[in-house]
Amino acid sequence: MLTPTVANRLSFLYAIGNTPATSLTRSVPIGKDVDVLSLGCGDVRNILFTSYVERGLAKRKIDVTCCDYDEKVIARNIFFLTLLLDDPGHVSPSCLWEIYYHLYVDAAAVEQVLKHVKKLLPLLETLGAWKRGLYAKVIRVADQETLDDVRAVCRRIRDGAEQRDTASYARTFKKNLKKTCDTLEAFSGKDGVNMSGVRSAAPLSLNSHNDMIKAFQTYSTHGTVTPHDPGNTVPNPMFASLVSETNVFHYGSDPTLGYHLAVAFAPLSENSPLKMHVEKTEFQTAEAARTQFIEWIAAFRELASRGMMVRFMVADVFACCHTLQHSASTGEPSGNWYRRQWDLKPLRLDGDEYGPAGKGPTAFDVVDSSNLSDHVGALNIIVAASSLLKTEPWATLYTETLLKQEKSQQEAFEKLLCGNIATMLLLLGISPVQYWTNAKCESHVDEVFLTMLVGALNAPQTQIHSRMAWKRDDQLSGTLGARGKLHIDSSALVRILFDIYMRMFSGENFKISVNAALDRSSAYTHFHRGSYASFLKVVKHRVRTDWPAVCSQLLEKISHDRSLALSTNQLQELGIQMHLQDVSTESWLLRESDNLSTGGRFRMWKNIPLAVAVTVIVPRSAVERLYAGENREKSSPTFVGSLRAGPNSPNQWQNMYSDVHIVFGKVKNSPKDENTPIIVEQDDQGWSGSSALIASFVVPTAALQVDPVDARVAICIPPSTQAALLYMGILGMEMTVFETKLSAASSVFVTKLMPGLTGHKSVCSRVNNFTDVVDDAGNGTSNKIMAEVPASESVITTITGHVDILSDKGKKMLQDRIPIELQQRDAFVIDVIFGNNALVCPLRFPIPVSQTGSRLRVARKSGHVEVVAPVASSKDSDVLSNFIYPTRLDGKGFPAALNASHMNLDALPVLDLEKKDQMQWLVTLASLEFSPREKSMRDEADKKSGISENVRVNFKESLLTMFMLTSGLQGGQTGMFAINHPEKGGIHMLIFVSALKLDADCSSVVLDAAVVPMTNQLVASGSMDPFLVIIRTLECGSINVDDAELILWKRVLPALAERCRTWSHRSDCEYKRKGATVPLSLVQGEKFLCSCGNGKLPKNFVSVPEWDTAAPNAVRIAISPTFSVPLVEDVVDPGDMAKGKEQLAAGDRCRSCGSAAAKDGGSLKKCMRCQSVKYCSTECQKKDWKKHRMECSES
Asked: Which Pfam families does this one have (predicted)?
């Protein structure tokens, strides 16, 4: 693996997802075929919800590859989906729910499980049998080993179903479930609950927390989502057969959490989708989840009949990604990756599916990594998965993480990436869209509430859940595949890479604080030197520099570092990993190879390689003692390999190796030469067996010849404060688990390769080289981008665009000293303009830059021009002010919304706007669009004209007005809005709202609306005159805008139309015309949207007189509240957060200052208008009025 080896004895069965389902196709335009890679896929909720979202949309091919390291999760999913594919009337939805989710079921459900598993087992004998079977059109298995694992799990389910009536089966299950309860108590205290579950009720989490607690306690107590049915007493073999003493059902599991539970608490209209059949029940969340379950499984059956394919693979994220890369670049089925830790089987893809004629995808439109970033590191996932993205503007890698509170959000993000943000993005060639837009449809409001709720329960949470969408920077910038390498001086790059190295391994720093040393991230880092080497391999293909010099100087700099505890000890591992991953083979490694001896361990070897594998047999007793005792039972020590000088050696040295593979088993032979592989027989009993631990790692061959007889080989626990507290009393100061002589033939084996592999693992083999320069034949120019880093710095703050003028015309202009000026076209492009547009040379940058503060350098004799542009600030650069929901065209003129998730508006729950007393939560949701920084600007604007100098603040103010007036929660109520520029032509567009809907996938709401652009052509035609006369008599909300906001609306609306499109773009679409842009034009009165969507609206879309006259000119759009991004800036005022925690914890408090009593010593006084909030004084009420007026309504 590319993460340290953690020997966890206690593991969890994550059979049920505990986060709400998300659409796997949300970034891909409607109608485009989709290949999805779901990493850490977990249960089937995302597949089912994606099916529901696709219901009723244009037919397309959807191919989803689901990868999870736990074969039990994969087997459960295959079992369940194949059961769904059987006759729909064969098993009732209620029975399906119980089979997949309940820990205890009735006898009929177990009989159904037994019947189906017996049907599956013959099909699981071979890949050929499965492909010939009745489910192969929809369900495929990626490799033979996954099939073998699924078969073994199904046998366990069968055996459990057959033993269902035995007392021992029930007793064992009860004992294992007690382990789950004990673990919950250990992590959360007595009567602990999983408060993170309120995320599933977003955007109504505050309304839900009591119900969520009750639902969690019900499932924890009864094993069912509602109180125990007397008939449900039989252990469900879908769980009971899969858990054990060391593999425990996860303590935070609750079946309802995978569903969108806001519908249980929001007022829905009578005919709304997903409206519960029973609105008032004691268990609202269970009823809401079951209602969705029924709809989702029906949608899956429909989509499966239309050609959906779901593939399954048992592997860890790195084995999956790097093997797919290897298959794509070489056509070979194996990249010599073990499928996962504790497993000796290599991942070898099915040659029929992934060979030259196979249809198994190796490049993807969507790679969803779930929450794996918190477990294996976001940077590692980006390195492994980004090269699997297709060259399309919609191709997206999703990561989810809990951003920990640092001094600033920028610092939190830098910690996540192990480096300066702009610098890392340039080196990786990929960017998170929301970092540059600082805008998103996804709400973080309920994350704020979760923090307040947890804080009120005296368990303060200082993390915000953040989902990031990463895109190739050539696609984000509009370069469309022509991105050139970053030219950089070798010494500057060495400084940058060394800074990244120091951040990556900061947990080893001697000067680390006590608090930091006790933090889990210090003991369980996501990186080892092999991880760093794989990062370097990506960088190698992204930069133009003297790469050999970079690697040599970098290793030299690292070797002289004394601030990291293990830096010099792991220098050899870094060198050999760089060699094996084709980063660089350093001269010292080659020099040592010249002196390799054919004696000792290598006396029978004819060809001695630079790297060999060392395998150590560690006695079971040496391992078991690490987990003895109450404090260590749940511990997870990190293992490293060690080579050190013998005790009698005059020169004492030690080298450590973190890329260790471990498994329980027996070594069956004793290889003597390089052509004889070591044979290890894996003990399938694992922790329940008695076999020794087999640990293997790769070392430089020369390291074994320094002291071939007396040198010591060991498995150790690396030093950390936490490890010392747990293990030093057992292991001593050196923290050695087991050590023996290198020459110990019975316990140490040296082989050419790791056990069971036919080569060293292939890493990042699909990373493509960028070109050195980008030629523009039409302009007669050649462009490149450069980074100039001052000698005292190790971050990139400016990017230099260099354009060589190759045409005779351009050279003459330079010689004639024609004036040159710069003009910024957008955030990524600065035009170099000669004279009066006689020659325009666009310089396209991979990340946003700002012309403000840039420098122009002209070399008239050399024939080139350079622009040194500062990297734009994602928080406050003017050039990014309207980069909110950008839309890019692909090479064929097809538009893709880069930052607005696609949705099926017709499938969303519709809110009942008549029930205003149940809609107050919307005020809070919409008002939290504004970050504290924006609130400050908004307050300043209110003191003056009411219009801010910041266009985003004005845009969000307009959105707030639309949501408040649509819902009727502020002032009047209307669904008609005019975007009006009083000084520039009056009304430029009309917006008509059909409904306000829940968008639970984004934890938010959305306006289902239509826009009528009032173009000069439309106005002149007179076709809408009757309609315009009518609406003058109706209540219409006027949204007054200035120049900047009007332009912003025109830039945003194409994305808002694309995200909810149900129609197809015509062959004559305006976007497909040569030179077309999105929007089509920003000129007043001209068309800015294509006309393909005109009139494509549902029947009876709005109830407005003469609507039939306007509808042919209307385009459906989806308008969401727009929130700032937590990884860019603070999204909520810390003072407001603290105040909210206090109010939740202490009950009645002054809304403004938090005081529990009035200033005069009496009780708090209620707001006379709404009777909901309280104040300690008139002064506090006045101070709070600006905020409270947005939500205050008469009681």
From this structure: DUF4470 (PF14737), zf-MYND (PF01753)
| Amino acid identity for residue 77 in this structure | N
In angstroms, rounded to a whole number, what is the distance separating the alpha carbons of residues 187 and 91? 38
Contact 441, 479 (CB under 8 A): no
The answer to whether 305 and 323 have CB atoms below 8 angstroms apart is no
Helix 1043-1058 vs helix 951-967: crossing angle, to nearest 10: 60
Going by C-alpha positions, the residue among 76, 33, 41, 39 that lies closest to residue 58 is: 33
Summarize pLDDT for 291-318 with one digit per residue, the tens: 999 999 999 999 999 989 999 999 999 9
Q: Do 655 and 667 contact (CB within 8 A), yes or no?
A: no
d(CA 953, CA 965): 18
Q: Do 397 and 384 contact (CB within 8 A), yes or no?
A: no
C-alpha separations of 722 from 564, 637, 639, 729 in Å? 17, 10, 14, 12
Per-residue pLDDT tens over the stretch 706-730? 888 899 999 999 988 888 888 998 9
Q: How would you classify residue 373: left for phi > 0, otherwise alpha for psi between -120 and 50, otherwise beta?
A: alpha
Tokens linked to 1146: 């202490």
DSSP state of 199: G
Sequence-ordered list of residues with C-beta below 8 angstroms from that of 854, at least 6 positions apart, any chain: 822, 830, 867, 868, 869, 870
Please confirm whether the linkage preceding 1079 is cis (ω < 30° from 0): yes
Find the radius of gyration of the CA atoms of the chain.
31
Q: Is the Cβ–Cβ distance between 319 and 338 less than 8 Å?
A: yes
pLDDT of residue 518: 58
Does the N-terminal peptide bond of residue 203 adopt cis geometry, omega within 30 degrees of 0? yes
Where do we find the tokens 């057959």?
Answer: 162
pLDDT score recorded for residue 497: 98
- DSSP H or E stretch at residue 935: helix 932-943
What distance in Å separates the CA atoms of residue 354 and residue 142, rounded to the nearest whole number?
8
Tell me if 308 sits within 8 A of 51, measured CB to CB: yes
SS3 content of the chain, % helix, strand, coil (to 5): 35, 20, 45
Note the Cα 332 to chain centre separation in Å.
29
- CA atoms 505, 508, 513, 516: torsion sign: positive
| Three-state DSSP state, 1154 | coil
CB 1122 within 8 A of CB 929: yes
Instruction: Round to whole Å and give the CA distance between 229 and 104.
Output: 9
Q: pLDDT-derived band of residue 458, with 50, 70 and 90 as boundaries?
A: very low
Percent of the chain clearing pLDDT 70 (strictly above): 93
CB atoms under 10 Å from CB of 618, counted, come to 21
Cβ burial, residue 103 (10 Å; 0-12/13-18/19+): buried
User: Model confidence over 329-373: pLDDT tens digits?
Assistant: 999 999 999 999 999 999 999 999 998 888 999 999 999 999 999
Q: Which residue bears the tokens 């021992």?
A: 168
CA distances (Å), 656 to each of 338, 523, 537, 771, in order? 21, 16, 22, 38
Q: How far, in Å, are 6, 10, 516, 733 from residue 636 at the CA level?
A: 6, 8, 19, 19
Rounded distance, CA 486 to CA 784, Å? 8
How far from 598 is each of 154, 421, 673, 708, 754, CA to CA, in Å?
Answer: 50, 49, 11, 11, 20
